[in-house]
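I am still learning, so would you mind making up any protein sequence you like and the tokens describing how it folds?
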Amino acid sequence: MKSKTLKIAFLTVLVITAVAAAGPKSPTVLPARHDSAPSVQNLSAWLEALAEMNPIDVHTHVFKEDPAFDGLLKNLKLRVLDICVIDDRDPFFKDLERQRNPTLNLVRSSSGRVAFCTTISPYDFEEPGFSQRVNRQLNQDFSAGAIAVKIYKTIGMEIRTKAGKYLMADDPVFEPIYKNIAARHRTIVAHLAEPTSCWQAPNPASPDYDYYKKHPEEYAYLHPEWPSKAAILAARDHVLATNPKLRVVGAHLGSMEVDVNEIAQRFDRYPNFAVDTAARIPYFMLQPSDKVREFLIKYQDRVLYGTDLGLMPEDKTAESLKEWISTYERDWKYFATDQTVEYNGHKVQGLRLPVSVLRKLYHDNAVRWIPGIAGGAHQSR
């Protein structure tokens, strides 16, 4: 059985390689989707091909141990970065300890297939000794195995000074923290700002329409007093410019999802900056395929695959894993084939990226930009 599976995977990769070498072809249409996703034990040929990449998903939120999830990791040869977040608007994410303990348990039980991304709480930033407290907590997490640090959109979009000014990512209070993270050779995963649609009137055609309908407290259009998206990204760019030794992965395409040219401009300007694709691949699909393909090939060392998939304590694991599997399959078809992929009624031809680019997107870039994610001890030089 194993020999047969490997043979199928090998032939699948050969097919993709041949397609990549050939000229443009007419798009083919995917078979109709079944109501139930394929089981973990019975992966489709496309997921078998994905597994041969030893994929790394650099953006997940998993806080539940379950043998079925462990099975998914093993069957897909998958590694994930498990990201903690502090957000006082969410009952679960208010408390870091509530996230840290299950994450560390997952790191141990998964034999390292789950990696730990810690975070900081910026809410007491005006209290004396803030940066020292944060660095103590970070260093403890680094000693426990954390390989990255999440900074979150509450910076720039929620937290204010006592005088009423919004806290931005380039506030001097964060500088000792950035220096410490860089000195310990960890990576920042920066979710700063939101999609452009967050500042625009409701548009049912937007990929994020349903999200902001459910979360009006995060919808900038309803909060005109919030800073502009441009101001939030300018503060992030200032951090990149003043901390050239700090590795930063911009979550969600760095909140520059509408136009890959905007991301390219930052790549050209800041060699310490990369982005992940988490929850923003539909925005690739809304742009011309040739343009996106050219961008991903030109900047093949700067884009990391991520999804924003989650598994929360209250979730039904089987239902959640259906979403994981269908997401991985859809994304692989989009990036690796020339088939027609449909997302929320929008049809787009797959990008048919070269195998060498796929390997960087799904594996190599994660290893380069987030050292320690492929297992082994992190070197704190």
